[in-house]
Design a protein that fits this description.
The strands form two sheets. Strands 1-9-8-4-3-2 form a six-stranded antiparallel beta sheet, with no helix packed on it. The protein has a three-stranded antiparallel beta sheet with strand order 5-6-7, with no helix packed on it. The chain has no helices and nine strands. It is 0% helix and 41% strand. The mean pLDDT is 96. The protein has a single domain, classed as 3-layer Sandwich (Rieske Iron-sulfur Protein). By secondary structure, it is an all-beta fold.
Length: 102
């Protein structure tokens, strides 16, 4: 599986997200407890960037367009209008570097 450098740990404060561009864009999330998770960047309900423009609440990301919610750990769609789960990506932290696998 391809591995790409996403950012440095210090680039993301807890409770934030960012989009990692590429052939497949990845939304990278850092929860309040400092854990990193990666999902597909685009909301499955409407094409909207979750890494760039969403709200992270604990381990749930909320798309501001129509309030679809997903679990960032599992990618599971948690409420309507989201009907499909998000693809998830393995995230590895090595020292100060954060990598996305896949």
């Amino acid at each position: 599986m391809p591995r790409r450098l996403a950012c440095r740990v210090s680039d993301m404060a807890p409770g934030t997200s960012m989009t990692i561009p590429g052939e497949i864009a990845v939304a990278l999330f850092r929860t309040e407890d400092g854990q990193f998770f990666g999902t597909a960047d685009v909301c499955t309900h409407e094409e909207w960037s979750l890494g760039t423009d969403s709200d992270l609440e604990g381990e749930e990301v909320v798309c501001p367009l129509h309030m679809a919610r997903y679990n960032v750990r599992t990618g599971k769609a948690l409420c309507f209008p989201a009907m499909s789960d998000l693809r998830t990506f393995e995230v590895q932290v090595e020292g100060e570097e954060v990598y996305v696998i896949g």
